């Protein structure tokens, strides 16, 4: 759903989608969605479903990236999606183990971790065009450390953390803002924007800390003015963070909404 929202609401010349290790039914549904999209003429789809050999699944991710590079070299603004890097890594693992390599971290041979940056470092901007890439990563558990996710996270410029807890609450997109990070945020925002964003994150942090006291019935209005102010904004902030699939919110509208919460905080 989130990928569909990004395709529909993003301005780009070409969209390249690589579906790696997905079920055949999911690929069929995605193709049907693309056919109904007004962006269909800008889309290129590369896929290797879960029943494809491991080598084919590895090659599909490489091919999707190569297609994106081709259009970038033609001066295009390209958006690349790879879903998912976890299944790409598992395919690399299967190939490596079959060739006799010894397993290391969590059963992944060392060559898997060598190959990840070779793929992830290929997108980016050149003097001709640009590739903005989104890679999905499947976590084995939200509680335990995941070496594959940690490795991929260390290479990329940032990450959007999708929370099962938020999804279970009907909060979509299920993005946990406090666990999401952009390493280039300071390079692409104004000082005022960064200050307002920091104020909203502090507000969300306060609300998260208050939730425990609310659950225990220990929250008492009137004891802390900052807590009371945060509680007054809780419902409106949650509504602002939710967005239906078909709803479009421009950058200026989103920035204006964020500033409104920052000014009240």
From TrEMBL:
SUPFAM superfamilies the UniProt entry points to: P-loop containing nucleoside triphosphate hydrolases
Species this chain originates from: Salmonella enterica I
Top EC class for this record: translocase
Domain ATPase F1/V1/A1 complex alpha/beta subunit nucleotide-binding: 2-182
GO MF, any single term: hydrolase activity
Keywords: ATP-binding, Hydrolase, Nucleotide-binding, Translocase, Transport
Listed PROSITE patterns: ATPASE_ALPHA_BETA
Record domain T3SS EscN ATPase C-terminal: where: 189-259
EC number: 7.4.2.8
The protein, known as: protein-secreting ATPase
Pfam family name, one: ATP-synt_ab
Gene3D superfamilies assigned: 3.40.50.12240
